[in-house]
Specification:
GO terms for molecular function: acetate-CoA ligase activity; AMP binding; ATP binding; metal ion binding. This is Acetyl-coenzyme A synthetase. It is an enzyme of class 6 (ligase). Its EC number is 6.2.1.1. The chain is an alpha/beta fold. Helix 5 crosses helix 12 and helix 6 crosses helix 7. The longest helix has 17 residues. It is globular, with a radius of gyration of 24 Å. The two termini are about 20 Å apart. About 55% of the residues are buried. Bound molecules: 5'-O-[(S)-ethoxy(hydroxy)phosphoryl]adenosine. The site of 5'-O-[(S)-ethoxy(hydroxy)phosphoryl]adenosine has 22 residues, from helix 12, strand 20, strand 24 and strand 25.
């Protein structure tokens, strides 16, 4: 990532054809961006009209970024319903158009084409089922499902009745699931018997059973049949979705929601403590998700759009479900993985469904690049027009491969930088407006004012050719509003370090032309295969094991995953470091958090480098993990400098 920021000098201007087709060309971008900054109220007041309101708003923006009084409101006196915006308002004009193309894990199983009319009926039925289970406006519903259409029905059904959903990625363990159910005090969890992925099956229902042992016994469980695999059943607690859907009514009236009523909670990792529940609300979120979806991907009516993310992450929320459906798009939902049955699966799906916009993560691109070009070249990718990436910095080699081998040199790549907290893209090149630079997120989206601050003084660094921490100067409608149940944590995390700004946690460089390059997190959050992880979470999982006295976890560069998880573990005095114990600890973390948190390296550490006041010097641990011993910096302030020598000597050989 940093190498790209320093070494990359190529630029790729859009073709005349791309420009001619684009919603936004260079001149329009300049004009709209300037207008959005000069008068945000006028700009967003106008943009808000792209969705349907029950009661139109008269206020547009009410924001205070001052630490201690942070308040973020958009369209605050308007009312609307998100599911009506994603469904009902399309029925007249595109009821028979495919809303969701569902591509199952196994290519031999049939794909489904779900029209807007069908999606509306399915959503209404699910909404009625939830209501019959006692779910009311403002109640929380946890969704723990495979990538199946029912996941979209469930999200939209919650939105329809005003329940707040919280999706938990199916790769999380029962413990992590229980923590999230309890964290938002959910009334119902929606799950499936099993989740097929890459030919294997995750036992979701039995994970949910295990999680529910740690939850209030009033929590009910709605079970969708996916594989038909056997599950245990508790009468009175477990409900059979497929059976109930046969009986449920096809219509459910959409609830009138306030623009600032929560739409969903999504737990995400931070630099300290346990994951926090990011809260997104109704009106501003939908305006922002739909506008960015249309402009960034240059979506036009009739296009087939595919985002390969999982609905368990924010990308799936904004760019599989809410943004595309609000725009009346055809959105593809894929249950499987890029390498099953083999490394041509993505490209076969593109060919089969004639995908026009394709949006994925750099980690997938790197994994597929390593398999050879023949997997791509045997597929007809002529439908592709726009390519996108998200989740982590993309290295120039992967960018070039994506551009040349997948896009045949003619598809612009939108490198979209954003976060769970931001609801939608904050920086990205726009296909018809910007000359691409491989690895650069290029330009702010409308209404976004990025600033580069000096990390120590917090003073804004003006001019170009500068580097520092990335903050945002003012709010945008898609911004998170609070941390669920803990507004103080929200303020402390995002508004305390750099007063008056939203602090992103990322570092960035603004190059000589004023274009932005994300250089990676400046805090203790790591990005593993595009999955965001707090090192503190992995540490607390490790120290919960009886053999572990202390643990420190850092990220290190990993060829495919972007970053890998490197753990330094100090054992209890009476424990011997064995291979067996290493395996046990790895399994332990998988059980505590989930397979996505599986440690890549565990190094036994008789001691950890600490300051005299007992603070672990992570900077040093990061350097050792990176195999970069030359720049350890000043170690003289350590309580015991000799531990560093030991760690270097025994650095795991991986
Ligand atoms: C990183 C994912 C470089 C960044 C939508 C951010 C990126 C974190 C990019 C958020 C990108 C995301 N280039 N880095 N295009 N996109 N990131 O919350 O460090 O899972 O802070 O949201 O991913 O991860 P999250």
């Amino acid at each position: 990532m940093t190498s790209a920021a320093v070494a990359e000098t190529r630029t790729f201007p859009p073709s005349a054809e791309t420009v001619a087709r684009a919603h936004v060309d260079a001149a329009k971008y300049e004009e709209m961006y300037a207008a959005s900054i000069a008068d945000p109220v006028a700009f967003w007041g106008e943009q808000g009209k792209r969705i349907d309101w029950i009661k139109p708003y008269s206020q547009v923006k009410d924001v205070n970024y001052n630490f201690g009084e942070v308040r973020i409101n958009w369209y605050a006196d308007g009312t609307l319903n998100v599911s009506a915006n994603c469904l009902d308002r399309h029925l007249k004009t595109r009821g028979d158009q495919t809303a969701i193309i569902w591509e199952p894990d196994d290519p031999n199983d049939e794909a489904q084409h779900i029209t807007y009319a069908e999606l509306h009926r399915r959503t209404c039925r699910m909404a009625n089922i939830l209501e019959s289970m006692g779910v009311r406006k403002g109640d929380r519903v946890v969704i723990y499902l495979p990538m199946i259409p029912e996941a979209a029905y469930a999200m939209l059904a919650c939105a329809r009745i005003g329940a707040i959903h919280s999706i938990v990625f199916a790769g999380f363990s029962p413990d992590a699931l229980a923590a999230r159910i309890n964290g938002c005090d959910a009334k119902v969890i929606i799950t499936a018997d099993e989740a097929p992925r890459g030919g294997r099956k995750t036992p979701l229902k039995s994970n949910a059973d295990a999680a529910l042992l740690h939850c209030k016994d009033t929590v009910k469980c709605l079970v969708v049949k996916r594989t038909g695999g056997q599950t245990t059943w508790i009468d009175g607690r477990d409900f059979d979705y497929n059976e109930m859907a046969l009986e449920a009514d096809d219509y459910c009236a959409p609830a009138e929601m306030n623009a600032e009523d929560p739409l969903f909670i999504l737990y995400t990792s931070g630099s300290t403590g346990q994951p926090k529940g990011v809260v997104h609300t109704t009106g501003g979120y939908l305006v922002y998700a739909s506008l960015t979806h249309e402009i960034t991907f240059d979506y036009h009516d009739g296009d087939i759009y595919w985002c390969t993310a999982d609905v368990g992450w924010v990308t799936g929320h904004s760019y599989i479900v809410y943004g595309p459906l609000a725009n009346g798009a055809t959105t593809l939902m894929f249950e499987g993985v890029p390498t099953y049955p083999d490394a041509s699966r993505f490209w076969q799906v593109c060919e089969k469904h004639k995908v026009n916009q394709f949006y994925t993560a750099p980690t997938a691109i790197r994994a597929l690049m390593g398999q050879g070009n023949e997997f791509v070249e045997k597929c007809d990718l002529s439908s592709l027009r726009i390519l996108g990436t998200v989740g982590e910095p993309i290295n120039p080699e992967a960018w070039t491969w994506y551009h040349e081998v997948v896009g045949k040199g003619k598809c612009p790549i939108v490198d979209t930088w954003w976060q769970t907290e931001t609801g939608g893209h904050l920086m990205t090149p726009l296909p018809g407006a910007h000359a691409l630079k491989p690895g650069s997120a290029m330009k702010p989206f409308f209404g976004i004012q990025p600033v580069v601050l000096d990390p120590q003084s917090g003073v804004e660094i003006a001019g170009n050719g500068v580097e520092g921490v990335l903050c945002i100067k003012d709010s945008w409608p898609g911004q998170m509003r609070t941390v669920w149940g803990d507004h103080e944590r929200f303020e402390k995390t995002y508004f305390a370090d750099y007063k008056g700004y939203y602090f992103t946690g990322d570092g960035c460089r603004r190059d000589e032309d004023g274009d932005y390059w994300i250089t990676g997190r400046v805090d203790d959050v790591i990005n593993v295969s595009g999955h965001r992880m707090g090192t503190a979470e992995v540490e607390s999982a490790l120290v919960a094991h009886p053999a572990v006295a202390e643990a420190a976890v850092v990220g290190y560069p990993h060829e495919i995953k972007g970053q890998g998880i490197y753990c330094y573990v100090t054992l209890m005095n009476d424990r011997e470091p064995t291979e067996e114990l290493r395996k046990e600890l790895r399994q332990w973390v998988r059980t505590e958090i989930g397979p996505i948190a599986s440690p890549d390296v565990i190094q036994w550490a008789p001691g950890l480098p600490k300051t005299r006041s007992g603070k672990i010097m992570r900077r040093i641990l990061r350097k050792i993990a990176e195999n970069d011993f030359g720049s350890l910096g000043d170690t003289s302030t350590l309580a015991d400098p000799s531990v560093v020598e030991d760690l270097i000597q025994n650095r795991a050989n991986k």
